[in-house]
Amino acid sequence: MGDNQQTITEGQWRRTKLIWDYHLMGHQLRPADVAIGLGSHDLGVAAAAADLYHRGLFPTLVFTGGNSLTTRARFPRGEAVHFREHALELGVPDLAILVEPNAANTGQNITFTRDLLAAAGILPATVMLVSKPYMERRSFATARKLWPDVEIVCASEPLELDDYFKSIGDEKLVVDMLVGDLQRVIEYPKQGFAIAQDVPEDVHAAYESLIRDGFTSRLIS
Hints:
The protein has about 220 residues and is an alpha/beta fold. It contains eight helices and five strands. Helix 3 (about 80-90) links the parallel strand 2 (about 60-65) and strand 3.
């Protein structure tokens, strides 16, 4: 890591691991009618989606996402476009991929993709959401709110927290993102964006402790 990056302490790592494990839904993978690769800064989502496609878990894959302040430099043509290109490089056939290039948040990822699929005559009963590992629970809660008539299965790259730290290369940023996603899991149901999720006391205590320690760059006001 660079000199300006914060190395987390052992205690902070343990608290981060609690939150990491909570974000993972632990769903058993099973065939779905369609998969949705949720755009982000993490190209590993596209790689995971490609692997799941090659395992025969779904026939159609939608990548969704435009740009954000955190992805514009890395994916100048938009998250979904770059994810599609990576999946093609990994052997997913072009005819199996649809692109939704406009969504700016998770709610739009779900609703815009639902509309795109409907326009293509695809009305799935089961949807697999492929996301960053720590985004599984928030994407699940969002989809259950906005698309309640489909069964949701969550998937992500099968990485341990240590491996994810290494893949991103910035421990402080990863902890900030895990804390920020947990805040959204807690707060978004109050705003009608997602269904409520039970947050165990030890996870909530870890979250509050990491906020006190300054892992706050991804918090919403």
